[in-house]
non-specific serine/threonine protein kinase (Halospeciosus flavus), 292 residues
Amino acid sequence: MVAGEEFGLVEETEGVDGDEWEQLDVSDTEADRIARRQDREFSEFRKRLKNTEQFKVTGGVFDDATFAALYKLVQDGYIEAIGGPISTGKEADVFEALAPEDETVAIKVYRINASDFRQMRDYLEGDPRFENIRGDKKRVVLAWVKKEYGNLLRAKKAGVRVPDPIAVQRNVLVMEYLGDETRAAPTLDDADLGNPETAYEVVREYIRRLYDAGLVHGDLSEYNLVVDDGELVVIDVGQAVTVHHPNSEEFLRRDCRNVANFFAREGVDADGDDLYDYVVSEADPREGEGVA
Ligand SMILES: Nc1ncnc2c1ncn2[C@@H]1O[C@H](COP(=O)(O)OP(=O)(O)OP(=O)(O)O)[C@@H](O)[C@H]1O
Ligand SMILES: [Mg+2]
């Protein structure tokens, strides 16, 4: 773990809340300004991070502005040190981090340059907030990260268990860590399912609650559900769309199919079309206030 303690709380950060998301502010962040300024303390911070064993593994993947975002999160008191990687993906890497009072949190660090827009495109089409920034990678990613934060809040409010969102800074999302001291919580495909029938019912209820709140996950499967201490948790909600999105029905059908197919392989009497029909008939998304 990197020591980051000397970067004490310097100034208050405004928390990001669900409503702010609707405005989709993608102007330069504090982290961009720090990166440009390159003051001595920031340079020291970056050097130290780069020199630690943990970071040699993922070495050099962070650009200045990402280091600056982490630095800002340290300054703002959200994290004290960065730990080992939990997952390395195409769009983002997830790390453990140490928060004040010895708490562990998870940070999801999105790549800006390496990020592949093709996967994002389907979800961005038809979302008016992305219309004017579609060609600008950095802005799309920054908006995406805020969207993920907002969606976590929405899902939580709808009664769906998700990692608690904690903060966003530029391309970094800080959230509740799922897992224990020895390892991060396994995804559903890797977990020992004592009772798949009950697990299926829980996931079914999660999809219904999300839909009722006007949201469709859009990438739901055994890989974006984790089992934390016996509890099912929905993760990776950056791409979730509202029911008004032109592809929301198709996404919901696909989510239902993925989930039902997984549980059918586990021996549960589950079927994607039945699940879809259940969700649609049992929820009233027009009452919801989804803002994905
Ligand atoms: N809050 C968390 N606590 C612990 N582990 C997490 C948390 N969030 C994500 N992970 C782990 O990191 C992995 C990747 O996270 P996530 O699905 O959000 O990112 P992704 O962009 O889809 O990456 P990938 O392409 O690898 O799926 C998850 O499968 C899970 O194992
Ligand atoms: Mg994922």
Summary: The pocket of adenosine-5'-triphosphate (ligand 1) is lined by residues 86-87, 89-92, 94, 106, 108, 163, 175-179, 184-185, 187, 224, 226, 235-236 (CB under 6 Å).
